[in-house]
Design goal:
By secondary structure, this protein is mainly α. It has two domains: 140 residues, no CATH class; 41 residues. Helix content is 81%, strand content 0%. It is built from seven helices and no strands. Helix 2 packs across helix 5 and helix 6 runs antiparallel to helix 7. The longest helix is centred in the middle third of the chain and has 44 residues. The radius of gyration is 19 Å and the shape is globular. The chain starts with a helix and ends with a helix. The model has no long low-confidence stretch (mean pLDDT 90).
Length: 187
């Protein structure tokens, strides 16, 4: 039964996550954290971090991670297949249709209208992860409850990325190293 739940959940995620992995994060969160409670919100935040640091799309990495955690290797295979199956079918069909109708104004209008929704979904996921990181799971957003170390690391990362145009992978590694060093020092 768990295999069917994993497959069905990630099939829905794969089917309705337009805009890539970042746009899929709210859907993954809804299924994995809220509906099935396979992961807690801090575990979900860790999942997103791990999925970004490992090669491959976020949704597929998430499916594999959740599948392994819930049902081992067979669970990972089932969840990953559920996640990629809709994309394989949809991309094949859309490629055929796009080649046939690519110059049609209606098609261009539909694609342009999807962009704001994708941006909103990415922003929603980012804000949710930021709130969890800085104020914890289920905590009120209060100045006294802010994790100032993580806030400083976040601000430093923004500066490194925007002002100095550093490689995002290097920034992630530096952020992890700074957090680890401070965690070891403060015990």
């Amino acid at each position: 039964m768990i295999y069917l739940q994993l497959f069905w959940s990630f099939l829905q995620i794969g089917l309705f996550s337009f805009g890539g992995g970042y746009a899929a994060m709210p859907l993954i969160q809804e299924h994995v954290v809220t509906s099935h409670q396979w992961l807690s919100m801090p575990e979900f935040t860790d999942l997103i971090t791990i999925s970004q640091m490992t090669p491959g799309p976020i949704a597929i990495n998430s499916a594999t991670f959740v599948g392994i955690k819930i049902a081992g290797i067979p669970g990972a295979v089932v969840a990953t297949l559920g996640c990629i199956l809709p994309s394989c079918i949809i991309v094949t069909l859309i490629a055929k249709l796009y080649l046939k109708y690519r110059n049609m104004a209606l098609l261009q209008g539909i694609l342009n209208s999807l962009r704001p929704a994708v941006v909103a979904m990415i922003a929603s996921a980012g804000i949710s992860i930021l709130i969890t990181a800085l104020w914890g799971n289920g905590s009120a957003i209060l100045l006294s409850g802010t994790n100032w170390l993580l806030a400083a690391i976040f601000a430093g990362c923004i500066v490194l990325l925007q002002k100095f145009r550093m490689n995002p992978i290097l920034v992630m590694v530096l952020a992890g190293a700074v957090h680890t060093v401070f965690s070891l020092i403060t015990g």
